[in-house]
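Q: What does the assembly look like in three dimensions?
Context provided by user:
Components: two
Sequences:
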Amino acid sequence: MSSRASLGTEVRNVAIVAVLFAVAPLVVLGSSYYESVLAHLLLIALFAVALNIVFGHTDQLFLFVGGLAGVGAYTTALLADALSISAWVTLPVAALVCGLIGMLVSYVSAKRNFTVVLISILTLNLQLVFSEIFVGARDITGGSTGFPYEYFSLGVVAEAVGIETKLVLYYIVLVLLVATLGVYLRLVHSKYGIAFDAIREDEVAAESIGIDVVRYKTIAGFVAALIIGVVGAFFARESGYVLPGGFTFLAVDVIVLIVLVVGGLRTTLGPVVGAVIVVGIEEFLSSAQSLQTWRTAIFGALLIVLFLYFRRGVVRSARDLVADARGGSTGGNGGSDVDGGQ
Amino acid sequence: MVTASTLLGLAVDGLAFGVFLALLGVGITLVFGLGEVLNLAIGTFAVLAVLVATVVVQQGMGLVVAAVVALVAVAAFGLFVDRTLLSLVYRSEGEDRILLGIFTTLGLTVLLDGILINYFPSRYTLPLDVGTLSVAGATLTGSSLVIVAVGTVVLAAVFAFLRGTFLGKATRTVFQDERGARLVGVNPRRIRTLIFVLSAAVAGLGGLVFAAGSAVAVSNGFEFTTFALIISIVGGVRSLVGAIGAGVLLGLVNQFANFFVGSYIATIILFVTAIVVLLARPEAIQ
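A: Here is the predicted structure of the complete assembly.
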């Protein structure tokens, strides 16, 4: 059933994307606005890769991407401040905290046989608790007014190399994306990928042939949450300021879901393609003042239409188109958008 | 020292908030129990009712007329959503339908929020000017008493409908056993339409009830949905009695927690209660 290309092809594709994004800042000719847009794009793509692992591959719908990202961002900053050490030291700690939260959620859900609805409701509730804490624990989080987020001493690197701080951040995020895609490829092209497929097809059958369902789901939850935590810190660094409003369900999760589905669930580059499309739409909307106010409405409509008619995603549709053009006989699952192209 | 009269006043306000929660909880429970669709747009339906009523009041109409117009409008909108969006959702089955339901109603919330915010940018309230009432030295908020009365009547009416009428019995049949219902000639799809419209109206009433005491903004929609989810979970997801009980209980808890430990902890208590119930007895929910 695996419609996946060979590992070699996938690695080559990721490498091409990496090179494209590495030279992308040259194209925008030092415009610091577009450098921000590019960094934002990569960060959104990273969130989507994480969600792809846990939701795409193991059907655990995590609706607290924003909340976890917030935990990552706040923990990194608050620990660094409290201990007066570099954020580079506290980032792994924060990531681990997020990873453990994800692991715990997945473990409990798998152990207790939660359906996808229950996991989504559970994580949505956690998301709201996190949001409430970011706003309410004023003494340590700064409440709804937040605080400036200037960690990771990027300025030092920028001066040493002689480029802008924004670019330093951009390349760090790019390295992070390539590394994460590397982890993703290793995961899905190993026994984990096979186990994930088996679990998604039929959990009971998977269990019966000796696949430890709880273990695999827990691992997926841990890896995804860990990635989200790391990305969260850079997400805050990119905006230069941390605000509870930046990590809400409607601000993060909705966008990440759209990105993942537009690009294509369970595809390697789907999150990147989806992020390009969604950020492209965002930029188009913000270019015209009259459209700006309709941004939310348009994304809502997009969410509905995508899930009803386009759950296969751009990457998979494009792959089929290419196959058709070559006269290939792989068009067998064309029109299977209802079942998500499984 | 907190006097008994203060506590009584708090209890009445808590009951009123509980009625609001119960109405939302009943709204989401009806639809999920019947068609496995988790209506994440339920809070926006409540907000929609408030906005329609506000417009009608601005035209110089009375509050009662405004409330009726608002409920009819929300019910009509519910019918429209059921015929269009949900018809597409009901085409798929099982887990697929559940996921599709979550995403399309979530999309609907975001879409409606995005549209409404352009026309209704501020906060709206429907003040019930009924003053206060003194009972045994306690000052009770008049609007809270009206809300409790209205809520009780409406929830009783919903129960009377489900228990007493033929349509209500048909509905409960679909609740319990969809194939069985089909065998005795009940068309589940039509029942679902009926119940979706009913749930929209009930949620709309919830919104109106809330707006009688506090201001409502478009952005409250999703918050209301999360309240509905919590009530539904704590009440057992498929049980209307459970939803009403959970609503009243959490309304009281929230009001007292608000008073004694502040609104921030009070809100966290709501969410944590839901999480604890989810973890403690998930089998009651699936």
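Follow-up: Chain B touches chain A at residues 38, 85, 88-89, 91-92, 95-96, 98-100, 102-104, 106-115, 117-118, 222, 226, 229-230, 233, 264-265, 267-268, 271-272, 274-275, 278-279, 282, 285-286 (CB under 8 Å).
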